[in-house]
From TrEMBL:
Name under which the protein is recorded: 5-hydroxyisourate hydrolase
Keyword Hydrolase annotated: yes
Reported function: Catalyzes the hydrolysis of 5-hydroxyisourate (HIU) to 2-oxo-4-hydroxy-4-carboxy-5-ureidoimidazoline (OHCU).
Molecular function in Gene Ontology: hydrolase activity
Transmembrane segments: none
InterPro entries: Hydroxyisourate_hydrolase, Transthyretin/HIU_hydrolase, Transthyretin/HIU_hydrolase_d, Transthyretin/HIU_hydrolase_sf
Domain Transthyretin/hydroxyisourate hydrolase: start-end pairs: 4-109
Thylakoid among keywords: no
Quaternary assembly: Homotetramer.
Domain of life: Bacteria
Keywords associated with the record: Hydrolase, Purine metabolism
Enzyme class: hydrolase
């Protein structure tokens, strides 16, 4: 079995992004829905059974910035950030998201 974790950071404030809604999908199938905690992490994601294959983590970053009082364009430039990635058999993938209203970055963490 493989495992998965994430960490969302708000690059505007320089702090963890608490309360970001996210989903894990494999194809059209939703495997997990949750929210980041006060540290910008979603520990429950580790409990999801994942195996070798392609996945997508979707982050509702527009809602997060709106709730925080950030003025966004209408429609927002970034609303849902999808990160599509592959998992090898027996691997762990840490998929962080560094986000701002007009840009984001990700990488394969450890």
């Amino acid at each position: 079995m493989s495992s998965l974790s994430t960490h969302v950071l708000d690059t505007v404030s320089g702090k963890p992004a608490a309360g970001v809604s996210l989903r894990l999908l494999q194809g059209d199938r939703v495997l997990f829905e949750g929210q980041t905690n006060a540290d910008g992490r979603c520990p429950e994601l580790r409990d999801v059974a994942v195996s070798k294959g392609m996945y997508c983590l979707e982050f509702r970053i527009g809602d997060y910035f709106r709730k925080g009082g950030q003025v966004l364009s209408d429609p927002p430039f970034l609303d849902v950030v999808p990160i599509v990635f592959g998992l090898a058999a027996g691997a762990h993938a840490h998929v962080p998201l560094l986000a701002a209203p007009f840009g984001y970055s990700t990488y394969r963490g450890s």
